[in-house]
Amino acid sequence: MKPTLRFIVFLLTLLLVLRFNVATEVKDELEELLAVDEEVEREAEKGGEKLSEAEVLSKAQRIVIELKNENTERVVNGNEFVLVLGYAPWCPRSAELMPHFAEAATSLKELGSPLIMAKLDADRYPKPASFLGVKGFPTLLLFVNGTSQPYSGGFTADDIVIWAQKKTSTPVIRISSVAEAEKFLTKYQTFLIGRFENFEGPDYEEFVSAAKSDNEIQFVETSQVELAQVLYPDIKPTDRFLGIVKSEPERYSAYDGAFILNKILEFVDYNKFPLVTKLTEMNSVRVYSSPIKLQVLVFANIDDFKNLLDTLQDVAKTFKSKIMFIYVDINDENLAKPFLTLFGLEESKNTVVGAFDNSMSSKYLLESKPTQINIEEFCNNLMQGSLSPYFKSQPIPDNTEASVRAIVGKTFDDEILSSKKDVLLEVFTPWCMNCEATSKQVEKLAKHYKGSSNLIFARTDASANEHPKLQVNDYPTLLFYRADDKANPIKLSTKSSLKELAASINKYLKVKNQVLKDEL
């Protein structure tokens, strides 16, 4: 028996009613929480008091719905837009993100966003976590009518608001009055303004497409010059205009390219960061993915950085969009130490200025004082490609009594490549589990060949020393440099016995009349 049209209509109506009821329950839950907060605020205002920062945060966190076993599917499937934060209480990055997420929830509510913000303790509720697709911490997922989409925005409150607005509302905010323009300025510190005579045509369509494609910057539009001047005072008197506004000394940047999607996005990518960007856990992904391949990093404590900031900003203006300047708190081990280790300066407490050319995987170090003149010269040479790459090195050791010579980055040329003798070089690292056994073999071989005037035994710690001609990825490694061919070292097996290694050495020695001792 086929279902009648009336029956089909009844089922559809029933589904709509159920969906409406679920959404209404969630809305009512939010309204109850907010009503309590508003009552608290009114009472505080009567007493002439302002809510403390902790109370404001508490209010923001209550706007975020807490998902559990019994309500996860209902919330996600019963609302058009739901942004879910999957977290774990023990996860430091989750703890850092939570306040930003709560603050974003407050801002989105004030903007009248239809988005529901929810959080899930995925460690405590593994079944809902599996249902939602939370596989790591923290995880942000946008659900549109029950279907998940990956989050691709930044991690500050402003970043979350901008991304959410673009995905659930309009990607461009239109300004129609001075009051709207002034209110906009109080909410957004960085934005891209577009002025068009009419909100139509190919150029405008490319602008809107760019707004939809970009995940980080708020786009704003207006048709009136006097309104545009509130946001961008030095706007050019043309029928169309694009420019970026930032809250820093280099506040305004005008776009002078073609109105093409990719070109507009490129302009945004090269100009969205401040003159000097402070690296944090929250923005690290954005910084590392910048298209600006030349990056100057300044490692300093907070006080030293404050004293250096004006100098850095002046230099950064000269190299705007060509070199990215980044400040890293030298006391932040998670952020600073991995970089400083690359320079062999992980224990440094003094200001360090280094640079990276990410197109070549090269690094550079300013080895003079960080004055404005020295930093400018350093950056000029970096731009011109005339800087010598930096290779880390331990201090030059005293090898007077050593049977196995210690080689450092600074002595590799003289002791290995320029030496007129054959050299057996052991390359090791302190954390290598098998290196100790190989080191003992090298010590015994050095003792065995002590009488040879044409053979040198040496070792280098690859974790603390670098050289462009030494490219080793496996540890330990044994390399035999023949006196007459230093450009092509021969790799010896570290799994060989002493006799086998001695036989290999004898094979390549200039004088091949060495006799193996019985003890080998």
Automatic annotation (TrEMBL):
Molecular function terms in GO for this entry? protein disulfide isomerase activity
Query: Where would you find this protein in the cell?
Result: Endoplasmic reticulum lumen
Instruction: Identify the EC number(s).
Output: 5.3.4.1
Alphabetically ordered keywords of this record: Disulfide bond, Endoplasmic reticulum, Glycoprotein, Isomerase, Redox-active center, Repeat, Signal
This chain's protein is named protein disulfide-isomerase
This protein's GO cellular component annotations are:
endoplasmic reticulum lumen
Swiss-Prot/TrEMBL catalytic activity: Catalyzes the rearrangement of -S-S- bonds in proteins
Q: Which residues cross the membrane?
A: none
Question: One Pfam family for this entry, by name?
Answer: Thioredoxin_6
> Which PANTHER family does the record cross-reference, listed alphabetically?
PROTEIN DISULFIDE ISOMERASE (PTHR18929), PROTEIN DISULFIDE ISOMERASE-LIKE 1-5-RELATED (PTHR18929:SF189)
Which species is this UniProt entry from? Glycine max
The task this protein performs is described as: Acts as a protein-folding catalyst that interacts with nascent polypeptides to catalyze the formation, isomerization, and reduction or oxidation of disulfide bonds.
